[in-house]
What we know:
Layout (H helix, E strand, L loop, with lengths): L14 H12 L2 H13 L3 H29 L3 H8 L7 H36 L3 H7 L5 H21 L2 H26 L5 H9 L8 H14 L6 H6 L8 H32 L17 H13 L1 H38 L3 H21 L3 H39 L9 H25 L4
Bound molecules: tryptophan.
Amino acid sequence: MALTENSSRGSWNSKLGFILAAAGSAVGLGNIWRFPTETASNGGAAFILVYLVCCFLIGFPVMMAELSIGRNTRKNPVGAFKALAGGNKFYPLIGIWGVICGVMILSYYTVIAGWTVSYVFEEIFFFMGMTDWATWIANTENGTLNAIFSIVFMGATISIIIGGVSDGIERATKTMMPLLIAILIIMIGYVVTQPGSGEGLSVYLKPDFAEITPGLIFAAMGQAFFSLSLGMGALITYGSYLNSKENIPGAAAYVTLTDVSIAFLAGLLIIPTMYMAQSQGITIFADDGSLIAGPALIFQILPELFHELGGVLGLIFGVSFFLLLSVAALTSTISLLEVPVSYAIDEHSIPRKKAAMGVGAGILIISLVISFNVSLIDIIDLIFSQVGLPLGGILICLFLGYVWKTENAFREIDSGYSGFSNTLFGKIWSILVMVICPIVILYNLLSAIGLL
Length: 452
Ligand code: TRP
């Protein structure tokens, strides 16, 4: 957290600090691991179209809602709902649900983040000709390895949360994002010249509208919430450290655009690479069209590309890619851990260091169980991100619109963007939050489970 010394709760040191931290929270495994995997399992370009609509029509307004609640109350999600609930005992449960979702998402996110670190070694071993070692460390089903790398990753996350990382997050994100974008673009340039990738490009870019089903819309909506870090109060927490002069709609727009662009580039690299690998005889899809690799997809596909490139270039690109991905994952795990930690600090008066270590260790125990049972990832992801986050999103919108009331939210947003409430954009935003988002999200959730 970018905490300044002179205030007890702290605040971001600069506008850029906040935007970078929020963008760092958004950009992570969601963009490079989850987005391409979801796109590949849901028919390519049609999924992307629906995903974009979800990000701008639902994600962006919900992000503004979270930021304004956080900045107004200056509290963790549970405390924030408590502060605005006027004594009602049930509203803070929205925050509790958020904390639970955050804890569960972080538990499996840590295991996958561990894979990004182990693949840095995989690339090095491969370059050195130690192919047995490379194969050994690349095994995402090896429970002991998963556990070790999860411990390493959780340790790094905890130490940053303890240290107060004003400079850490800022510096990491400022250098990481441009580098990540550069590597993605260079690798895209390479892969499109390879045989077989053309089919992948057309799957990725030419939508087939017949593929848009309730299942696809449900997956796209869950992906939008996950990738933008919404629905569980991470941005209420980050908003609580935000100065009232800052422009909330502007910051939310910047974060949404950055996140969507990086996901789009990642897909542009990974989907054609899958087809390139397929043309070389690697089986990617099962007979029923489902992905064979499951959550490990990009970890099987991308090394193919780096090995194909080969030599020192393959080493440089492979190592830097997985290193940057681990940093991107780290700026996301920080935001996931900060939510339960700020809850423990604010609501239970536990000192930051103790809270970070206690909560982090508790979540690590779940990560260790997942390390030995990787198949749990899909089910936890289904419950706590695909369903849990949009559900949180509905509750946040309804709470803002009908309990806290939009005029209060407008007052909060206007303080950094004067006159926002009178703009057309402001009016559209209030309709989105009060009516459109809750109805669309609820409709999608119900139709995905077959009730509508
Ligand atoms: N958005 C991150 C990613 O794309 C993951 C993440 C960080 C997250 N904080 C979150 C997801 C809060 C949901 C809620 O990798």
